[in-house]
Design a protein that fits this description.
By secondary structure, the chain is of the alpha/beta class. It has three domains: about 150 residues, Rossmann fold; about 160 residues, 2-Layer Sandwich (Dihydrodipicolinate Reductase, domain 2), CATH 3.30.360.10; about 80 residues, 2-Layer Sandwich (Alpha-Beta Plaits), CATH 3.30.70.260. Helices cover about 35% and strands about 25% of the residues. The chain has 15 helices and 18 strands. The strands form two sheets. Strands 7, 8, 9, 10, 11, 12, 13, 14, 15, 16, 17 and 18 form a twelve-stranded mixed beta sheet that branches. Strands 3-2-1-4-5-6 form a six-stranded parallel beta sheet, with helices on both faces. Helix 4 links the parallel strand 4 and strand 5. The radius of gyration is 24 Å and the shape is elongated. Bound molecules: L-homoserine (HSE). L-homoserine binds next to helix 8.
Length: about 425
């Protein structure tokens, strides 16, 4: 080492192709910035014949990942296979072989990150995972370095490009959910299994990584409360606008004696910058206790934005290696992830709620609904009855004041059993913009 840094790539798919393009097309720029060339030594993929719109010498291609990991000229291993296995085994192998790793693998870190963290501790090796959250936005580096002086009060993120693209296309372009999703898949934004995008799981993976970085204790994705887009429909998106809100699939992370980590459709005020984030764009609003509010915006998915984040990690590690060290900055910002941080159960959160009941249009209906809400200490801020009878019921839409989740769930269970109610009540949580 010294005159060059060797890169070994595992996975030559969409993001891998972007990484190869940057390493080849921007070779000169990167050399000027790093001081030595970043040399693409070897690439492994199970399918070497798939057409890719970048040219590489056939000599550097292999189907054997171990050949890449143990190649004597590979200094940094880049894992872009995705999923749990075999990616996990390859990352552990590389770390144990004394090689730092760069990965975009949010599912692995969020679901099964403990073995990786343990091996990082044991080996003292480095791990870069900027590309795992919010694609091209350097949010992890910002939290780890630029915002290191801050405790984190609130982190609100639109961190799934596909879900945001689908919501935007439905609302603004009037196209169907299925067409919008197919379009996102064709553009390479969606996960291999797009239900991860729609179910909120992909955003939950990213939220667990952000929370680990914010609070210094490992949060597994199983600890994140998740709801996806399954129950969001155009009708609620339109009513939200009438109340002055927009519906976004939001990741919410809140500090406090007990922290909150959740992902669900959320109404945010139209005038807030987050409400204006459209299409595949992501944004993360972070409130630090020293810096105050900050907001980061950019493309959260796709070949080149994600490859940009991968290369940023490669360069950070290359610079450390060239100075004869490793891991100048701990991967998750804290020297140890053993902090005693408690999670607030979802039932205990307090927020405002949008509720849409499908109720019969006759006298006394509203008072029965509001009676049950009042019994549960849920106070109504405003109510609108929309239109006239549709198949025997009409939508009755309410905004509540702040209420406790457990009380709202209990009240809705009771309301949904009433004979005047013609279907499951729709609930969307509201972040009202107070203080943010
Ligand atoms: N499927 C993800 C998204 C890709 O749509 O945001 C980036 O993680």
């Amino acid at each position: 080492m010294g005159s060059r840094i060797g890169i070994g790539l595992l996975g030559f798919g969409t993001i891998g192709t972007g990484v190869v393009k940057i390493l080849t097309h921007k070779e000169g720029l990167l050399k000027e910035r790093v001081g030595v060339p970043l040399d693409l030594v070897k690439i492994a993929d199970i399918d070497l014949n798939r057409p890719r719109n970048v040219r590489v010498s056939p000599d550097i291609l292999t189907t054997q990942a171990l050949e890449v990991i143990h190649h004597p000229q590979v200094d940094i291993v880049v894992e872009l296979i995705g999923g749990i296995e075999p990616a996990k085994g390859f990352i552990l192998e590389a770390l144990r072989a004394g090689k730092p790793v760069v990965t975009a693998n949010k599912a692995l870190l969020a679901q099964d990150g403990r073995d990786i963290l343990k091996t990082l501790e044991e080996t003292g090796q480095d791990l870069g995972f900027e590309a795992s959250v919010a694609g091209g936005i350097p949010i992890l580096k910002a939290m780890r370095e630029g915002l290191v002086a801050n405790g984190f009060n609130r982190i609100y993120g639109i961190i799934n490009g596909t879900a945001n693209y689908v919501l935007t296309m439905m609302e603004v372009e009037g196209i169907s959910f299925q067409d919008a999703l197919a379009d996102a898949q064709a553009k390479g934004y969606a996960e291999a299994d797009p239900t991860l995008d729609i179910s909120g799981m992909d955003a939950a993976h990213k939220a667990s990584i952000l929370a680990t970085m914010a609070f210094g204790r490992y949060f597994c994705v199983n600890e994140v409360y998740v709801e996806g887009l399954e129950e969001v429909n155009l009708r609620d998106i339109r009513y939200a606008r009438e109340f002055g809100y927009r519906v976004k699939l939001l990741a919410l992370i809140k500090g406090g004696p007990k922290v909150e980590i959740r992902v669900h459709p959320t109404m945010i005020p139209l005038e807030h910058s987050l409400a204006k984030v459209d299409g595949v764009f992501n944004a993360v609003y972070i409130e630090g206790d020293a810096v105050g509010p900050t907001m980061f915006y950019g493309q959260g998915a796709g070949e080149m934005p994600t490859a940009s984040a991968v290369i940023a990690d490669v360069v950070d590690i290359a610079r450390d290696l060239l100075k004869g060290g490793t891991r100048r900055v701990p991967p998750f910002s804290y020297e140890s992830l053993e902090r005693d941080v408690r999670l607030k159960p979802m039932e205990d959160i307090v927020t405002r709620y949008y509720l849409r009941f499908m109720a019969q249009d006759k006298p006394g209906v509203l008072s029965r609904i509001s009676g049950i809400l009042a019994k549960g200490q849920i106070s109504i801020e405003s109510v609108i009855q929309k239109g006239r009878r549709e198949e025997g019921t009409v939508p009755v839409v309410m905004m509540t004041h702040e209420a406790r989740e457990m009380d709202v769930r209990k009240a809705l269970a009771e309301i949904d059993r009433l004979d005047i109610i013609g279907g499951k009540t729709i609930l969307i949580r509201v972040e009202d913009g107070k203080g943010w």
